[in-house]
Structures are given as C-alpha cells and as structure tokens.
Amino acid sequence: MASTQGIYSSSSNVKTRRSLLDAKLSRREPSFVPVSPACRPVCPAKSVARDTPPGLSPISNSPHSMATTPEKDPISLWNRYVDWLYQHKDLGLYLDVSRIGFPDGFFEKMDSKMQRALAAMQELEMGAIANPDEGRMVGHYWLRNPSLAPNSSLRLQIEKTLDSVCEFANKIISAEIKPPSSPHGRFTQILSIGIGGSALGPQFVAEALAPDNPPLKVRFIDNTDPAGIDHQIAQLGPELASTLVIVISKSGGTPETRNGLLEVQKAFRDAGLEFSKQGVAITQENSLLDNTARIERWLARFPMFDWVGGRTSVMSAVGLLPAALQGIDIREMLVGASLMDEANRKIVVKNNPAALLALCWYWATDGVGSKDMVVLPYKDSLLLFSRYLQQLVMESLGKELDLDGNRGTRSALYSNDRESITVTVQEVNPRSVGALIALYERAVGLYAYLVNINAYHQPGVEAGKKAAGEILALQKRVLAILNEARCVAAESVLRPPRYCFFDNIEQKIAFDADFQQPFSGSDDCLLQQRFFFAPLLLYLSPPSSLSLLSIVASLLSVSFITMTSPTPLRYVLMLMNGDVSLDAFIVSVLLLNAESCTHPSFSYRPYAFPLPSQSSLL
Ligand SMILES: O=P(O)(O)OC[C@H]1O[C@H](O)[C@H](O)[C@@H](O)[C@@H]1O
C-alpha cells in the first residue's frame, strides 16, 4: 500500500512553523503547491466556495462558524468516510476526501459549474484549441489512447512514436545498437539533459518504477549549475564511453539545457569520444536541437508534439524513452493512465476521482487559492511525485511557489483542523503510476475550469526565455570587459591582481539602466567562457545598478552579497564565492551612490567592512 496525502494549510499559519519543520523533514520531503489561480488575490476578501447555499447547514454545529472546522465525531467521520470513499478496483486506487470539511450539499451546489468543466474537458479531448495563445490543441490524453486523437494523422504520429521508442529501447538493451568504444560492448548508463517539464516526469518515473538493477542506470542534468553538471560527468568517469545521452527539450532552445549539452559534449571531446554516436534528441521537429542533431547525425531523434505541454509530456517520448531503457513497462503505464482517464470522464462527481479532487481543492482553498497544498508521499519511491506535481500545478494554475512545512500523522493534522485528502494505491507499479499522473493532470484541468483560468497556455515562459537571451548577451559584454582587465593586469604582475578598477563599465557594455535582471543569484549561463580571474576587490565606477551587479555576480558564480553600513549612498558589496572560506573573499564590488539596495535578487546583511579609499588599496 502506498499513500500520498495532500494537506491544506493557510500560508501565514504554516510560514511561522517553517524553520522548525524544515529541520525535521528528511526523506519524506513535502512540496508545497499553491493552488491559487493567477491574477487573483491570495487572501480572499470573501470566500467563494464557503457560501453555504440556502437550506444547507455547514458541518460545524455552530451556525456562525465558517464551516471550516472539520467533523470531529468519530461515528460521523466514519460515515463520511464510507459515503465518500472513491475506489477504482482495477487500478487498486483509493481516494479519501472525508477529511475535507465540505458541507452536505456542496457538491450539488457546484454541480452545474463542474458539468461545464467536464464539457469543456470533453471539447479539449476532441481537439478544441484549448491553448488559444499559441493556437494549439492540448492532447496529452491521446498519448495513452491514440484512438481519441481528432484525426488519423495525429493518431499515426502517436502510434509510430511509441513503436519507435520501444524498438530503439530494445535494440539498446540487447546491444544491437552499441557505443563505438565502450569496453562493456553496450550502453550501461543514460545521462538525461533537460529541465522543468523535460526532466521532472522522467525523474519521477525513474524513482518510482526503475528496478534495482536496471539495464541502463539513469542520471539527470536538470539545472545549469556547473558544479552539478561536473559532478554528474565525474560520477560517470570512464563509463562516459558507454553512456547514452538523451537531450530533452520541447522548444529545443532552452539555455539551461543547451549549457548542459555543451558541457557534456566538451567532456566527450576531452575523453576522445564521438558525441554524435551516443547522443539522442527528443524535441519538436525543426527546433534548434532537432536541426543540430540532424546535421551532426546523432544516434536517434524522437519527436515532441506541439500539442503536448512540457508539464504533461511524461507519457510522450520525453518520459517513455528513458523509462523503457530502464526496463519499465511503459505500455502498462499507458494502460493505467488510460483507465484513469476513463474514470475521470464520468459525469457523476462521486464516481469521478479527478472531479472529486478538483472540488475539494476548490473547497479547501476557498476557490481563490487561499491555502497552500502540501503533498506528503508516504512511500519513498513516490518522493518525486511531489516535485512533479509542483510544476504541474504551479505552471497550470500560475502562482509562485511557496515553501512551508507541516508534518505529522493524518490524525494529528486533523486534530489541528488541517483538511487533507489521501490517495492510496495498493502497489506502486507502472499501471498505478500512470493512473496517478492521469488523476492529477485531469484534476488540475478541471480545477482550472472551476476557477476560470486556462491551465494550458504558458504566458511568462516564452517571455522568460527571451529575457534569458538578453541577459546572455549582456553577460557576454560584461565578460569581455572583465577579461580585458584581466589581460592588462596579467601583463604587469605575475600573480592575479588583488584589486581592479573598471571605469565607465556601463557605457562600455551599453547597459540599459532599466534592465531588470530576470534571474536571481548565481545563475551561470556561460559555462564555456567562465570568468576565472578572481581579484580580491573589484571596483565599478561610476555608480552601477544592482541589476548590473547581479550580472557580475552570476559571472563569478558568487552566492551572496553583504553590504556595509552605515555610509549613506555608499555601499560595499561583498560577493562571496561558495567554494572559498570566509576569509578568502573572492571579490567585492564598490558602488558609489548606488541605488537603494532593495533588489529582490539578493539578500543583504550588514557587514562591518571598513570602506577603504582607492589610494589606500593601491
Ligand atoms: O522542454 P523545454 O522547451 O526545454 O522547456 C523546459 C522547461 O522550461 C521552463 O522551465 C518552463 O517553465 C517549463 O514549462 C518547460 O518545461
């Protein structure tokens, strides 16, 4: 038996307990998933869901109660459990919503809204343009039942891709396709490079379902942190020669993924290996990645369809290929998801687990996302389900991620008036994992309809990627200036100079004062060209903005900044590199007349550092 629990906590309440709970949490790491729809206040002035319809009594005995106090009497609670328990016998899946405090009549009150949501879902499944921003259909449900695809060409695409995934995986596992220079004579490792929707699904499936000794072991590069990438490559060591590198990117142009690819390709070159003989791309046709893979003649390419969103792509080649290579029965996963989809089409809410979940979310969060959802997997192998759900819910329902903590048994939670939902599967196997994924995908879709938002478009994602392009260009210009200074300095002294001054840096790089640094902290997007010269003190003059400073910080991979006080309008910002000790400051940046230090990218703390004059340093 394996359970996962969704618990609802009001943000402020949970926040105060965060540090305590953070310390206690270990393997059963919860994820906090806001279910707030975008563009709505998090704290509602007035509850939408809790308006008890005329003639209905809230659960609490007190007529003045908000009906938020869950049922406490054990017999009533038992009756509630018996009344509401949803069971899917073929899937061995149980959904218990009895500890959500909705009153009698709530489901009836919501029925017309839910019926509209179900009808919209039906249209979506029939091929409606559910993502109007991009003029796209939304078809992840067809992936597990191609006969539902709105036309035969889409159906064939799905079936052909599934067949080719299975065929390729079999050939790799049986060593019919092998790496050119591996002493093992076959592929033994997978290195998957991708981020967000192109990483979390495959990671979850691997953690949940991979056998102890899979035919190929999988590793992931899912961030642009150079240390993390180096670590993965170092761990592979000589096995790089028998590693299948799968690069996953729907758009084919995500900078983080590209950085990972460039670093891995460099490792292949350094080891005298030919990357193209071991590289596989999963991406949309004609994307940058697709074209690169085609021109460089990589080992294989698999399509990602424009009608599948990244966060719901785990049943496409994105999730299926890595899973099949680990010996996971992907057809069973698809069967599980398809059976769950069938259940989720039922119009009687009590018989429809996704509708039940969506309505409970609606109730628990007042229909305006007034609480955060905490997901606690009670089974280690489902640990990553919470991370997977974070992205699914966060990107679909569009609120920033909030981290908080609550832990305890269900009854402890309940006695503290925490509402919760428990999903239980009899066994964690491909079928039940497929079903879990399908359950939440649909619940998110239905909930989005209930709160009147579109779960399928992604405003901000493309804008974010564009902004990333701008910052990369700016970083290059800053880097050129820093490197120029390094060359000049290197001519005059044998060891790296301790202090450096940069005049007119903003003019030199044509820095736009309004530029908003879209990333925080130490994103390092220029792995290939890292600035390796590290002066002790770096002066920027004239006054530079904190956005510019943050770019310098990212180039130097610094992890935090401190600020001197109390000199008004005069700041020394200490940038400290994570891998040096406190007394070995890598660089500090002197900003004169800097703007107010309230930039959200950094945390500041007073640091008693004497502000030296330039002459005393030289
Ligand atoms: O698959 P890609 O196009 O490389 O995108 C990977 C990921 O990029 C960002 O993180 C987006 O927020 C995600 O929605 C997306 O899944």
Report what the structure shows.
It catalyses: alpha-D-glucose 6-phosphate = beta-D-fructose 6-phosphate. Residues 46-70 are annotated as: Disordered. Residues 58-68 have a biased composition (Polar residues). Pfam families: PGI (PF00342). Pathway: Carbohydrate degradation; glycolysis; D-glyceraldehyde 3-phosphate and glycerone phosphate from D-glucose: step 2/4. It is built from 19 helices and 16 strands. With 618 residues, the protein is an alpha/beta fold. A 6-stranded antiparallel beta sheet has the order 2-10-1-11-4-3. Strands 6-5-7-8-9 form a 5-stranded parallel beta sheet, with helices on both faces. Strands 12-13-16-15-14 form a 5-stranded mixed beta sheet, covered by helices on one side. Helix 4 packs across helix 15 (430-450). The chain is globular, with a radius of gyration of 27 Å. The termini are far apart. Mean pLDDT is 73; it is low at 11-30, 34-67, 399-409, 488-501, 515-544 and 557-618. The structure holds 6-O-phosphono-alpha-D-glucopyranose. 6-O-phosphono-alpha-D-glucopyranose binds at residues 195-198, 249-251, 254, 257, 310-311, 395, 461.
Architecture blueprint of SSEs:
Elements (H helix, E strand, L loop, with lengths): L1 E9 H6 L1 H7 L6 E4 L39 H11 L1 E3 L4 E4 L9 H20 L26 H22 L15 E5 L6 H10 L7 E5 L4 H11 L6 E7 L5 H16 L8 E5 L4 H8 L4 E4 L13 H9 L4 H14 L9 H12 L6 E7 L5 H15 L12 H6 L3 E7 L4 H21 L10 H32 L6 E5 L1 H4 L28 E5 L4 H10 L2 E6 L6 E8 L9 E6 L21 H4 L1
Helix pairs in contact: 4-15, 5-10, 6-10, 6-13, 7-8, 11-15, 12-15, 13-15
The structure holds 6-O-phosphono-alpha-D-glucopyranose.
Family: Belongs to the GPI family.
Pfam families: PGI
EC number: 5.3.1.9
